[in-house]
Amino acid sequence: MTDEHAVITNSLSRSFGAVRAVDAVNLSIPSGEIYGFLGPNGAGKTSLVRMLTTLLLPTGGSASVAGHDVVTEPAAVRLKIGAALQAAALDDKQTGRELLQLQSRLYGLTRPAIKQRINYLADLLNIDEALDLLIGTYSGGMKRKLDLAVAMIHEPQILFLDEPTTGLDPISRVELWDEVRRVNEDRGVTIFMTTQYLEEADYLAQRVGIINQGRIVAEGSPAELKRSVGSDMIVARIDGQTSGAAEACEQVDGVESVEVYANEITLSVDQGSKVIGPVAIALDQSGASVEDIVLRTSTLDDVFLHYTGARLEVDANIAKEEPA
Amino acid sequence: MTAIGLTQVQARNGGFASDVSAISRRALRSVLRDPESVIPGFIIPLFFFTVNTGALQNFVEAGGTLDYKAFQLPVAIIMAVTGPLSRALTLVEDVRSGYFDRLVMTPVRRLALLIGMMVADIALVIALSVPVLILGYAVGVRFETGVAGVVAFVALAAYWGLGFAGFSYAIALKTASAAAVSSSFMVFLPMMFLTPMFIPLEAMTGWMATVAQYNPVTYLLGSLRSIITVGWEIDEILKGLLSVSVVVIVSMTMALLALKGRVSRQ
Ligand SMILES: Nc1ncnc2c1ncn2[C@@H]1O[C@H](COP(=O)(O)OP(=O)(O)O)[C@@H](O)[C@H]1O
Ligand SMILES: [Mg+2]
Predict the structure, then answer these.
(1) Is residue B39 in a domain?
(2) Which ligand lies nearest to the CA atom of residue A21 in the structure?
(3) B96 at A interface, C-beta within 8 A
(4) A105, A114, A146: best mutation site toward chain B, by most B Cβ within 10 Å?
(5) CB of A12 within 8 A of CB of A65?
(6) Is position B22 within any domain?
(7) Mean pLDDT lowest for which of A137-146, A231-240, A308-317, B185-194?
(8) Which atom of ligand 1 is nearest to the CA of A49?
């Protein structure tokens, strides 16, 4: 298994009526990798994960997971994968241990194996104290961890995580990142995760695919992707018209590309500290009223902007922690 | 720590019986943790039995030899085992929360997801028959057929309960809507009331008598009553068994088709 590919897709597509949710996606993910699938709401992330986890049939192309075709050999695929799908799917009326035991039995685990797996995962994911409480009483972060444990109970080779930290507060999010990384390092489990969060993809994934409207628009390691749009970014916010101002910036020496989104002009530049002065002067001369101007290193959001013409803004306030 | 993690776990299908037992145990655990959901199932039949016999006993018994309490006990047991007790609402919640997807992603046999719930239903139905039987005994109802008759009585009622539950499972899997599942009880009302529920079939007249003749519950009631008051009257019992079987076949077919649709990956 180690030298094989965990996931291979070939023009994988899924339409819902006229909507092309996933449009000719080609993936090739080696075993042991953490692959991050980054895209906004409605990009097609969940549809893709549901196809790879045998819950949804493709309408075009093919996919093989752990060496088995998802359409013709779903049963073989299921034995090798685990998944925590969007919004922790648990049962509030059971305890964590009962849920793990039920799941183990459906995977045909023997009694001693069940006991060992539960102990091991409780330890790995720090869910010991919560195991014998009803799931209905868990905090959001604890639910996500249990969700992860349930997904791993049968020692899968590949884990699919669909937006594992959406809805979590920042602290639980970072904690879960560490658990995910530990799972990957400890057992070499391949992890395919989707996210809307740049920092998440940046921090966790060895390789990132950026998906927009069902298509992969860019793929590479976070560093490669950022380099592809230039190392430094100058972002100027303009009060009013951006068109004259954007053209003025294009003329400045050292400016490699100019993207306009809403009232922001984003310049990818070679050496930011040298170029920012001339850019400020050019903006001033163009008559634009500049609200502020910042110099920073590039982020995956800039990559997203570069390839799609839109920002991947996710409102940080949507992260809600359920009461413990 | 790593040593523990290194157990060789062999994921496989656990076998049908093991799947069913795991699924049904979970369903029964939820019932025990949420007893409010079954309490009406214990009270309503006792209430109907008390009210019906209290109000109508003297009136109906006046003209003949009918033992009205024995006549009403089958009505109570049918009420106990029908409708609101099925685990179909749990299934709706599972589909909505995504937990059903999680189950479907395991190697579990698809059929076990449904049968497991039904096994839990049967356990519950038997539990619900107990108070009805105790009340019947307390007010002096005795089975002509003895203990074996009591077993046959509960089994036949449970068979009907399962047949009826099939409709709620079909609706649950098809619609994933709690409101739609609850409305399956609307089907039960005419089936229960358009029968010789209050008076014998011979005494019924007009359109109700006609409808009752085509209602399977009429023959179920007939069998159950015969088991109590007459003895082992095989053709009466067969009539009930066959009419309930028709219901079971229809509802189970619908439930299986709905299950197939739900796991079809479309
Ligand atoms: N079952 C479905 N029926 C119809 N349209 C769907 C269905 N599932 C997803 N879609 C559509 O497919 C597109 C991609 O959705 P999804 O895969 O959920 O994206 P994401 O997970 O990235 O938010 C959206 O336009 C969505 O409305
Ligand atoms: Mg999604």
Answers:
(1) yes
(2) 1
(3) no
(4) A105
(5) no
(6) yes
(7) A308-317
(8) 17
Q: What is the pLDDT of residues B60-85, one digit of tens each?
A: 777 777 788 888 899 999 988 886 66
Q: Where is pLDDT greater, at B58 or A250?
A: A250
CA of residue A287 to ligand 1 center, whole Å: 44
What is the count of structural domains for chain B?
1
Confidence tier at A2 by pLDDT (50, 70, 90): very low
Nearest Cα residue to atom 3 of ligand 1: A16
CB distance from B63 to chain A under 8 Å?
no
Question: Would you tell me how many other CB atoms lie within 10 Å of the CB of residue A71?
Answer: 16
CA B149-B154-B160 angle, to 5 degrees, is 125
Mean pLDDT check: name the lowest of A23-32, B19-28, B50-59: B50-59
Q: Is residue B7 part of a domain?
A: no
The parent domain of residue B238 ranges over: 14-262
Q: What are A45-96's pLDDT values in tens digits?
A: 999 999 999 999 999 999 999 999 999 999 999 999 999 987 778 999 999 9
Q: Is A115 an 8 Å CB contact of chain B?
A: no
**Chain A residues touching residue B35 (CB < 8 angstroms):** none
B4 neighbourhood in chain A, CB within 8 Å: 116, 119-120, 123
Do the domain assignments include residue B239? Answer: yes
Would you state the pLDDT for residue A285?
87
Query: Measured between beta carbons, which residues in chain B are less than 8 angstroms from residue A75?
Result: 13, 107
- What predicted TM-score, i.e. pTM, was given to this entire model? 0.87
Tell me whether residues B97 and A106 touch, CB distance under 8 A.
no
* A57 vs B34, B106, B265: nearest CB: B265
Domains belonging to chain A, first-starting first, are: 5-220 (3.40.50.300), 225-321 (3.30.70.100)
Percent of chain A topping pLDDT 90: 55
Average pLDDT, chain B: 88
A133 touches chain B (CB under 8 A): no
Closest Cα to atom 8, ligand 1: which residue? Answer: A47
DSSP-derived letter for residue A323 is P
- Residue whose structure tokens are 């088995």: A68
CA distance A265 to A132: 54
Q: Which residues of A touch B23 (CB under 8 A)?
A: 102
Decide which of B14 and B3 is more confident.
B14
